[in-house]
Design brief:
The protein is α+β, with helices and mostly antiparallel strands. The protein is built from four helices and ten strands, in the order H-H-E-E-H-E-E-H-E-E-E-E-E-E. The protein binds ligand MTE and molybdenum atom (MO).
Length: about 180
């Protein structure tokens, strides 16, 4: 008698457990999926360093936060004051083992950096423009403006070239830093 009731209870629980699982799969699973429609269209907060470097990297905002942080006051392309926060491009290239300092000579002088953006925009820097052994000017990869993350149009990452009169190399929506070699 007791055993029969036990089996009945177990069966009931077994059935409702199965029902709960089906409902979970039906309603919860799509939102647990890897590619949620909202996040799939948003640009990924990571930067790739590829090409002729010793150590190609994919860096997240967390990785970048571990590098020495710099902040700079500039006027944007509309004459509006902005305080940008980020890291020197040189420290990113150094982490990816690009030739800098004493190693930036000989064949390495044919190397250049192509900054790629999500909209297909590209801009080039020669490595000596970025290397503290060559220049005191600091080109930055920033992910903060006036204490906030960058807007979707501007970020998540942007290049800032503080002393450049035109802003054509202030690349928005940076996705990849590629080291290429002149032929
Ligand atoms: N990804 C991307 N970055 C870009 C551009 C672009 O078309 N795409 N235009 C550049 C030019 S020519 C200028 S003058 C500045 C303008 O900066 P703003 O969009 O913040 O005003 O962005 C630069 N960065
Ligand atoms: Mo421009």
């Amino acid at each position: 008698m007791i055993i029969a009731r036990y089996h009945a209870t177990r069966r009931r629980w077994g059935q409702s457990g199965l029902l709960a699982l089906c409902l979970l799969m039906l309603f919860a699973a799509p939102s647990l999926g890897v590619e949620h429609p909202d996040t799939a269209s948003a640009p990924k907060a990571e930067v790739r360093i590829t090409g002729k470097v010793g150590q190609p990297l994919v860096l997240t905002e967390t990785d970048i936060a571990l590098l020495p942080q710099k902040s700079i006051d500039v006027s944007d392309d509309h004459g509006v004051h902005a305080n940008y926060r980020g890291v020197a491009l040189a420290s990113l290239l150094d982490r990816a083992k690009a030739p800098l300092g004493k190693d930036l000579r000989g064949r390495a002088m044919r190397l250049y950096l192509v900054v790629h953006a999500a909209d297909g925009y590209e801009a080039v820097f020669a490595l000596p423009e970025l290397d503290p052994a060559f220049t005191d000017k600091v080109v930055l990869l920033v992910n903060g403006r006036d204490g906030h993350s960058l807007s979707a149009e501007e970020g998540p990452f942007r290049i800032i070239v503080p002393d450049e009169k035109r802003h054509a190399r202030w690349v928005r929506q940076v996705t990849t830093l590629a080291i290429e070699e002149a032929q």
